[in-house]
Specification:
2 copies of one chain form a homodimer. Chain A has 365 residues and is of the alpha/beta class. Chain A folds into 2 domains: 170 residues, Alpha-Beta Complex (Quinone Oxidoreductase, Chain A, domain 1); 151 residues, Rossmann fold (3-Layer(aba) Sandwich). In chain A, 25% of the residues lie in helices and 27% in strands. The first copy, chain A, has 9 helices and 20 strands. Chain A is globular and about 60 Å long. At the A-B interface, helix 2, helix 3, helix 6, strand 16 and strand 17 of A face helix 2, helix 3, helix 6, strand 16 and strand 17 of B. Strand 17 of chain A pairs antiparallel with strand 17 of chain B.
Chain lengths: 365, 365
């Protein structure tokens, strides 16, 4: 089968022929339809991140995936050939209690693996095999957007984490919330757009900032969802005196994180999902006022990474609800689909203003 | 009656005669025994903080308090003369749902008042009157330490906030926690010592850092409670590779906050209780690595301020349990008691190494 391989930490990407994986008795074989490309893929191709499986020098790239069931091993039942499926990314360390209870997104040994990223083959290949516990069935009507279920799961977890932090002071007996919560989403790539969608479904008022005017694909989708779009290319002062109960950061821009902290309302929560460069030089931070405000206003900052199966399932539910609420919208979430053969162009540069670029592995269905 | 007044924002402190407050029909009159002195009191005396009641230029100082019931208004029952009581500090804004549901520590208008601090008379006077809903009855056996119930309530809330952030990933069905959680307490003033006490009662292993050797009063108390003490005067590198699930910061030192962030374990939570100087100059922060770690390891930072009545009640329970567990220990928490007349000396400088200095208003009982 064809497979897109990389050799971390060497900058690399090659389309090669490799044997199809052997199907284990308890596994399902999946034909890959398409894979999304995200910043982590770019980082790996550039040699900044990623790790091949133990004992190997090469890694099959790709973690955002969509496929159809081909066949099941003899001890697996219930997976009909042709069923649309998305596989989760992180795999258990087999040691800590989080991994053993299905929450490997909170793995506390750090010895997890991640398909297509860290120590385990990914999905940019014609086929993969996987145990059913890591496969999420997707309804056929979600076909156009289902390749974005993995980033959707990351957004779902981030928002649950933020809501938990907001809800730590609930309930207020006899005095429920009456005003909608005010959310700010920083960044309008895939995570930012998907977070905006989820927050709108949850009844938040939502403002989204990026460094573009409203004419981008993202700007147009935000408008349909009733999200206020603000071009913050000149800084967050464009938001004036607005303050927010929940801020979802999806850029990884270090200085912006501190600006966002200053935009929190009393009791507000900032959720960080963007992954900053660890080697960035120190920056000057007026930390006294920010930290003082965090204490005096009971504010919180929460980092959130990855997502376990339950968040993929939440993503299926929310995509389904969004299909009903905004007909025709989700079909526009994928900015561009290109055949796998054009991987050099798609992986070779980071495209500002795109929501999601997708490599099509099998265009037949 | 004698009262210690200040004139914020003018640096000031005067012991004066003022009329005793008038008892309302729904109020209790309390004779003040003693008041603790904390950093906020120093800030107010130095003119950096505090606000007199509306329409007045003077504020009676003091928020850490202990007294005995003198008499009750005609519509109050159940408060026997002589009963030991501690009054809470913050008063409702009468508008937001948090204040209206007894959680004014989460007031979301910011228009709360605080006795002895912000817009409402404090307790450094011979008497005060208060509605019973703001009074917490204290068992007689807690007399020696009860003046520290207010800082205890602040530590109780901070730890609940930290535990809530830790517990956001619970439960792990079938896989309960088996190892004790590892806590680090930064600072061994009143909040740090009280937080250490609470964490030991909750079964955490506890390390406490300050800038002193173990010979201070704090160092000796920590030893009795089974807390490891580390002198971090030369920096947190004294902790080596140790990492912590919960860190309680109780210093307000800005650069230290970032050092502590780097000491969090995977899924760890840093609770900030110290109040930094808002006008401190910017400092260089190697934020890329810290923020990246927050995301990749699901870490959280939570600011916590003040405490509602429920945390004063938790403090009474924990002090009572600590009396049983460490006989003779709590009697040593107050470093020094001085008569109110010596306020100039006590309020005039911040004493490093002391846990709690107390001004005695009425030494008769």
């Amino acid at each position: 089968m064809r497979a897109l391989i990389v050799h971390p930490p060497t900058p690399s990407a090659h389309l090669v022929e490799r044997p199809a994986p052997v199907l284990g008795s308890g596994e399902v074989r999946v034909r890959v339809l398409e894979c999304g490309v995200c910043g982590t893929d770019h980082d790996i191709v550039e040699g900044q991140y990623g790790k091949p499986p133990e004992g190997s020098a090469e890694l099959i790239l790709g973690h955002e995936n969509l496929g159809r069931v081909m066949e099941s091993g003899p001890s697996v039942s219930g997976w009909a050939p042709g069923q649309l499926v998305v596989a989760t990314v992180r795999r258990s360390c087999n040691a800590c209690r989080f991994c053993r209870s299905g929450q490997s997104d909170f793995c506390e040994t750090g010895r997890y693996t991640e398909r297509g990223i860290f120590g385990r083959s990914g999905y940019m290949a014609e086929q993969y095999v996987e145990a059913p516990e890591y496969l999420v069935a997707v309804p056929e009507e979600l076909r156009p957007v289902a390749v974005m279920l993995e980033p959707m799961s990351v957004a779902e977890k981030a928002i649950v984490e933020g809501q938990r932090a907001l809800d730590r002071k609930e309930p207020t007996p006899g005095y429920p919330r009456t005003e909608p919560l005010r959310a700010l989403v920083a960044g309008t790539g895939a995570i930012g757009i998907l977070a905006s969608l989820i927050l709108r479904l949850r009844g938040y008022t939502v403002t989204a900032i990026d460094r573009h005017d409203a004419s981008t694909p993202a700007g147009q989708l935000l408008q349909v969802m009733g999200v206020r779009h603000v071009n913050a290319a000149a800084g967050t002062s464009a938001l004036g005196s607005d303050r927010f109960d929940l801020i979802v950061e999806a850029t990884g821009a270090i200085a912006l994180d501190f600006d966002l902290l200053g935009l929190l309302a009393i009791n507000g929560v900032l959720v960080l999902t963007g992954i900053p460069n660890a080697r960035a030089p120190p920056i000057p931070v007026a930390a006294g006022a920010l930290l003082r405000q965090m204490v005096l206003a009971n504010q919180a900052v929460v980092g959130s990474v990855n997502a376990n199966r339950s968040y993929f399932e939440a993503g299926v539910r929310d995509f389904t609800e969004a299909y009903r609420r905004w007909p025709g919208l989700l079909e526009r979430f994928v900015t561009r689909r290109r055949p796998l053969e054009e991987f050099v162009e798609v992986l070779g540069h980071r495209e500002g203003g795109a929501i999601k670029n997708v490599l099509v592995v099998d265009a037949s269905a």
